[in-house]
Amino acid sequence: MTIKLRRLAVGPMIGAALALTACSGAAERDERPTAGEPAELPIFDELVESLTAADRPTADELKTTIEEELVGTTTGLDAETQDAFLDCISQGLVDSDLSDDPLAKAANNEYGTDDERAEFEDVVTEVSTACVDEAIY
Question: Nearest CA to 75 among 122, 128, 127?
Answer without folding.
Answer: 128
